Structures are given as structure tokens and as C-alpha cells.
Amino acid sequence: DGGITQSPKYLFRKEGQNVTLSCEQNLNHDAMYWYRQDPGQGLRLIYYSQIVNDFQKGDIAEGYSVSREKKESFPLTVTSAQKNPTAFYLCASSTRGPTGELFFGEGSRLTVL
Amino acid sequence: DQQVKQNSPSLSVQEGRISILNCDYTNSMFDYFLWYKKYPAEGPTFLISISSIKDKNEDGRFTVFLNKSAKHLSLHIVPSQPGDSAVYFCAATYRNSGNTPLVFGKGTRLSVIA
Question: Which residues are CB-neighbours of A61 under 8 A, at least 6 positions away?
């Protein structure tokens, strides 16, 4: 079945450690996105990529890094520079067309101990 | 500054009645609007959308209304069912500039009471 797979679903990290969240899609979508959800804050855009080997910062990119070496994959690294990393992270993808409809993964919950 | 606002954090409705979720936007460039539904610990799923050339779009129990002059849209769910209990996000984009990322509101938590 086509879809977006995020892993791991739950992750615990000690302060000062970097952690990488995986996002893979088999929908043949060109564009991929990372959002962060916090209670009462809605979905805030971290990074997005419209094509392989290219990505742009979103509204809250500080403390995060991404890569887009393959069309199917868009991993997100939460670095130790991110001050409040505990959150629910959502990966999404879309076609390059104008509809704007996003398809989301199931999410990854990161907890910093 | 929030470009997409959902001013009601929560809403409770009795089963069978109408649920009305509201959304306001400030950016007049937005020309395409979407609603997503989200259950806890899951990713959002697309519900319904509307282009700025329309003022209404209907899909089964869900209808979205757009008032461009007021920069306001609303999602109507009739009749409301317990399974509709979720967080609903309003989102907007402007398609003419290509694949512009969606801008989301903060969401409204709908509780449908049996």
C-alpha cells in the first residue's frame, strides 16, 4: 500500500544528544515536509523540500537539520541546539501540483529526559 | 503573526446536531483552503477543501463555506457523530506560486456527546 512511514513512533533522548527521525514515502511525491505539533500550537513547519537535493527552512527551523538525497526519504535530525525538542513530529508529502493536499505519516513522539 | 486563526480551542456538540467550526485568515493571497481531522497520536487526514473561486463545497456530511470578503471559512458537520470527535485543523495556501507549504491554524477540538 502507498503511504508515508515514520519511525520510530516513540523515542526517548537524553539532553545533549542528537536524534534522527526517519520518514519514507512510496507515493512518488516530489515534495516532503516536517511539522511539529505542540499542545495549543497547531502544526508548525520545520523544513520542507520540493525536490531532491533541495530544501528550505520553515517557521521553526532552528535546532533542526534535514537532508533529501532520495525522493523517497526526508530524515529530520533534532540536534542538541533545539531548546524544547519534546514534541510530536509529523512528516508529510504532496505532489508538485497546485492542490496543496498533504498526506501525513503517523507521527513520531520525541521525549527528552 | 498568525495568518490562519481558529479562535475556538474546543467545541462540544450533541450527537445528531450540527457542528460548526470556524476559521479566519489574514493573508488575502490565500486561494485554497483545506480542513484536516486529527485523532490523538495519529497523523492528520484530509477532510475537505475549497478553492477561492467557490463559496461552498459539500462532501457527504461535511460542507465548507468560504466568505472571501470576510476572510472567513467554516466547516459544517451534519449530523454530528461520536466518531467525529477529533481535532480539526484549518489550512490555507496560495496555489499560483507553486507548491507553497500549507499554513495551519491551531486547531479546534470537537467533542460529540452521545
Answer: A46, A47
